[in-house]
Design goal:
Bound molecules: 2-acetamido-2-deoxy-beta-D-glucopyranose
Distance between the termini: 64 Å
Strand order of the largest sheet: 3-4-5
Number of helices: 21
Radius of gyration: 24 Å
Structural class: mainly alpha
Helix content: 40-55%
């Protein structure tokens, strides 16, 4: 160990960095020892902070009082206090109750006005310093003037979505559920008032097309500060998201920014956080060992929230969904599945359900997901590349090995030679330390996630794999008039048919476009054109960019799920700009549907 330390000290001058590496190696050698005590509920759960518990009470009372029409539970958990909690709570408890906790509309509205600040007032507008109305070199391949004009409007939306945390929050964080992040950020929009984890990757892709490098880095610095504080990137920048993460794309953000800016010091500052995050996804309940049919043991990851109560931002909805469960242990298990599904980013989808028409059968923690492991493989490759770039061959080598192991695991556990795609694997319901792969664990249903590994160069540079994937993707039923459907199930959940989501279009298209096969590249371009058209047409009709689109026909936005359709919208804007940057738009190609 001592020899190793001296070696590290000689090659890397930054003491913080050395510390992280030492911690990292310590942790990777100890993390195999985590015992598997209970099959269903690993991971400790601490109680909610008092502010969150109080705002949950306000949320439940508001539902009883105002009724369920247009009710958004998140609105109440995002409010902040005008006075300290004990005074506020005393006032709230002394409101006159009519029956079963119900307060009159007048009394509750009066209380909220007097004692609480409106949701969203904890963030203030921030003028991005690197915004220009038409940056030089903006989308050089877009020749069509109509498209160019529209793209500049999308570009100008970065201004609308740019925020920073109000100084009041930083001075008095106990009154807010918003976390006191220091740097400016870009938010998704509408009810998503704060910065989100995986959304930020596509926001950043758009900001890079918009040449807004400082705004892009600033988002990453905020996310890194969350890793410093919590050990992982939170789902979003609120205290009530501190029990789960989201699809891990921090390394992808850093490497894309580095690619455009060549900023080595940015990479150096980011690497310790990436090492820490890698540990988070490869230890404790997130880590699963599985033995394949040939007897090799692999290590893969799953989504697993450290939470077994209703999600505070959706408490009233989660309690309602859990009503049909009869005892507390079943409810706790279900709440953990709800939070773990939120960690997956696909909340909600039949992809995670044992019974497609029963949300209480969510079983996300029993699934080894193709997409999550693809993102972690990317993380390992990114870390190896960055470590090499800054001259740290030890870390680089370690992560190259880790990526080789995960590639092998992905091929062995997920790849189906006959169906020529990667399938999620369902763990059988048992408590084993090492799971045993069985053919019946493969989930052979068509999901967009079955094709996400093609995003990774290891796969898209292999022509024979790409050929197979193009063929199986074409016959999957997922390719629709206006883009890639998420699944084929008509469930009315938002990560199901007929919704298409910008991030899924982007990773699959980008993967196919990187191939040397003409067939894959033209498939990528065809999907991108459909996606751009439907975004354009819907924007012309509604005046806004949407969170999701209905892929059945050009010009329709999406619906379903537990809240009304949202506009703004960070990742959709980012993907339109990234597609236009990659493929351009010729003068004579019609943009309308
Ligand atoms: C879970 O979130 C709560 C806030 O809601 C926080 O107080 C607690 O520390 C978190 N627990 C874990 C294990 O992260
Ligand atoms: C909260 O505010 C009230 C009234 O301003 C004050 O009397 C009380 O001491 C405060 N409590 C705490 C815990 O700060
Ligand atoms: C963006 O902000 C500008 C200026 O505040 C406003 O006029 C415009 O309506 C906003 N656009 C959207 C789509 O929100
Ligand atoms: C950025 O990415 C492109 C495309 O993958 C690659 O050709 C280029 O070399 C990269 N640039 C840097 C500085 O890494
Ligand atoms: C809870 O109810 C389920 C059936 O819905 C049952 O299988 C389970 O044993 C019960 N658990 C406890 C702790 O009572
Ligand atoms: C699936 O759930 C629905 C709705 O709760 C129920 O009617 C049906 O019987 C369930 N199917 C199976 C196979 O359990």
């Amino acid at each position: 160990m001592r020899k190793f330390l001296i070696f590290v000290i000689q090659i890397i001058p930054n003491p913080n960095f050395i510390f992280s590496i030492v911690i990292y190696f310590f942790l990777i050698t100890t993390m195999n020892m985590v015992p598997c005590s209970s099959c269903n509920d690993l991971g400790h759960v601490k109680s909610s902070v008092p502010l969150i518990s109080f705002l949950e009470k306000v949320q439940e009372t508001a539902l009883d009082t105002f009724g369920s029409v247009n009710f958004d539970p998140k609105l109440y958990i995002d409010m902040s206090l005008k006075f300290n909690l004990s005074k506020t709570e005393k006032e709230f408890d002394s409101l006159k109750r009519i029956k079963s906790g119900k307060v009159s509309v007048k009394d509750l509205s009066g209380f909220i006005k007097m004692y609480l600040n409106e949701a969203g007032s904890d963030l203030v507008y921030h003028e991005p310093t690197d915004f220009e109305y038409e940056p030089s070199g903006f989308l050089p391949k877009v020749d069509n003037l109509k498209v160019r004009k529209w793209a500049l409007e999308i570009h100008s939306l970065w201004k609308n979505l740019s925020r920073k945390v109000d100084d009041k929050v930083i001075e008095n964080p106990d009154l807010y559920t918003l976390l006191p992040l220091k740097y400016p950020m870009v938010i998704p929009g509408s009810r998503f008032r704060e910065v989100y984890y995986w959304d930020s990757y596509w926001v950043i892709r758009g900001l890079l097309a918009s040449k807004m490098y400082e705004s892009a880095k600033s988002i990453v610095y905020n996310l890194i500060s969350l890793v410093d504080e919590y050990g992982f990137v939170l789902n979003g920048a609120r205290a009530y998201y501190s029990n789960r993460s989201q699809p891990p794309l921090l390394s992808s953000m850093v490497s894309e920014i580095y690619n455009r800016t060549n900023d080595l010091s940015f990479v150096k500052k980011s690497l310790p956080a990436l090492l820490k995050e890698h540990k988070f996804w490869n230890s404790g309940a997130h880590k699963v060992k599985i033995q394949d049919s040939k007897g090799c043991i692999h290590s893969l990851s799953r989504y697993y929230a450290m939470w077994n109560k209703p999600r505070p931002e959706s408490l009233t909805i989660d309690k309602e969904s859990a009503l049909k469960l009869l005892n507390d242990s079943d409810k706790q298990h279900f709440y953990r599945e709800l939070a773990s599904t939120a960690e997956s980013g696909w909340d909600f989808s039949t992809r995670w359900m044992r019974n497609q028409s029963d949300l209480t059968t969510l079983a996300t923690t029993s699934i080894l997901p193709v997409d999550l492991n693809t993102y972690i493989l990317k993380m390992e490759l990114d870390i190896a590349f960055m470590a090499k770039t800054i001259g740290d061959s030890l870390i680089a080598e370690h992560f190259l090995e880790a990526s080789e192991a995960r590639r092998t695991a992905i091929n062995s556990i997920f790849w189906n030679t006959e169906k020529e795609q990667w399938f999620d694997y369902w763990l059988s319901n048992n408590c084993e330390e090492v799971h045993q792969w069985e053919a019946q664990g493969e989930n052979q249903i068509s999901f967009a996630s079955n094709f996400i590994p093609i995003w990774i160069e290891l796969f898209n540079s292999d022509d024979s794999t790409v050929k197979k994937v193009v063929k199986s993707f074409r016959s999957s039923g997922l390719l629709c008039a206006a883009g890639i459907a998420t699944t084929l199930s008509h469930s009315s959940e938002q990560w199901d048919f007929p919704n298409g989501w910008a991030p899924l279009q982007h990773v699959i298209v980008e993967g196919l476009a990187r191939s040397s096969l003409k067939e894959a590249r033209s498939m990528a371009e065809d999907i991108a054109i459909r996606w751009i058209r439907t975004n354009y047409e819907t924007y012309k009709e509604t005046g806004t960019m949407h969170e999701k689109y209905d892929v059945e026909a050009c010009g329709k936005f999406g619906g379903g799920g537990e809240y009304v359709p949202q506009t703004g919208f960070g990742w959709s804007n980012g993907v339109v700009l990234a597609f236009l940057e990659e493929f351009g738009w010729p003068q004579d190609l019609e943009i309308g549907c």
